[in-house]
Amino acid sequence: MPDFAWMAWTWQTGLFFAAIASLLLIMTLLAVYRPETERVGALRIPTTRGDRLFISLLGSAFIHLAWLGLVGPGLWWASGLSLLYAALVFRYV
Amino acid sequence: MTKVLNNKAWFFVLPVFAIVAFSAVLPLMTVVNYSVQDTFGNNQFFWNGIAWFQELLDPSTELGGRFFEALWRTLLFSAIILLIEVPLGIAVALAMPREGWTVALCLVLMALPLLIPWNVVGTIWQVFARGDIGLLGWVVNHLGIDYNYTGDPLDAWITIVVMDVWHWTSLVALLCYAGLKSIPDAYYQAARIDGASRWAIFRTIQLPKMRRVLLIAVLLRFMDSFMIYTEPFVLTGGGPGNATTFLSIDLVKLALGQFDLGKAAAMSLVYNLIILAICWVFYTVMTNVDAERERVEA
């Protein structure tokens, strides 16, 4: 087993990437077993599940940054807000 | 008709996935990893949580102050570049000949600045704009205008903007020219029969037909100017003071000059997110303009 200690990985970043990888895996499996067609929602653009995931992730990153810059630490609130935002995106966009 | 299901092609794509993972995904993951740590050299890292991001997003700190200053500077630069290069590119494209041997000559001349490597462009302008041995600097100074791009922030900005306009306007012009060439002659004949003015032809025929290429031009020029590094780095090195220190230059100073990997990683991630968001907006607009046009034409 090669030694990757020099890359200074931490379990927190590992967890973060594992979450992203699982999301991608779930989306791939969904695309295979539950194929879907594009739909036009609140943004007036055709979106697929993958598009909505991308919009949710990108928006969540900005929600966390905005929370940190405008309110301060305590990012659990920002995470909650991001989940709500993602739910809205998946429902209406 | 039965659909042929053959997923063997995926095996041919696997090497690309492997190369992209090694050259892009893993380095990006490393940056994310560094952004939550601090290092004091000797490859020793310490957990720092979200502290770098907190400092970066607070304009009252040293890191936040320089980040926001560089961000506004870069946005201002991109805005100036778009405001100058897009109308100028359209004007040049409209003025270019449509037939005859001059077309080829024009195209070659227009393409020349695009072929010059960025650091060479910086070096050319560094010498060209010098007050003692540069043609531009010497002439401007002898016209009685006090010009010194190494000492005066405004002069440095003007020089960088003019350099970029010189380097990249022809890209916008060539794209617009391609859009103009695709307009059938029948449109112009109809306009002549209707007695349309030059302005009316431009507004109702040429501009709508150039919309797609213009969007591409705006996207390309925005992204390039927002990520500009080499030319201003060679020309001014980010100076005088920090007057022309754009985000990319600041990032390199932070990461390689000061070796503050954690801070630099946090800054790169926020920079990357801004670029990603703007790219997505442009891409979405572009693809939807296309889809809309196809619907209209169908």
Strand order of the main beta sheet of chain B, please?
1-2
Q: Superfamily at the CATH H level of chain B?
A: MetI-like
The gross shape of chain A turns out to be: flat
Indicate how many domains the architecture of chain A comprises. 1
- Derived from helix and strand composition plus strand pairing, the structural class of chain A reads mainly alpha
Mean pLDDT reading of chain B: 89
CATH fold-level assignment of chain B: MetI-like fold
Q: What helical percentage do the residues of chain B reach?
A: over 70%
> What is the level-2 CATH architecture name of chain B?
Orthogonal Bundle
Indicate how many domains the architecture of chain B comprises: 1
Number of alpha- plus pi-helical segments of chain B: 12
Show the largest interface. A-B, 21 and 24 residues
DSSP strand tally of chain B: 2
What summary fits the major beta sheet of chain B?
Answer: 2 strands, antiparallel
Query: What's the CATH first level of chain B?
Result: Mainly Alpha
Give the C-alpha Rg of chain A.
16 Å
Strand-residue proportion of chain A: under 5%
Main sheet properties of chain A: 2 strands, antiparallel
Q: Which residues of chain B sit in consecutive blocks of at least 5 with pLDDT less than 50?
A: none
Strand order of the largest sheet of chain A: 1-2
The ordered string of helix (H) and strand (E) elements of chain B is HEEHHHHHHHHHHH
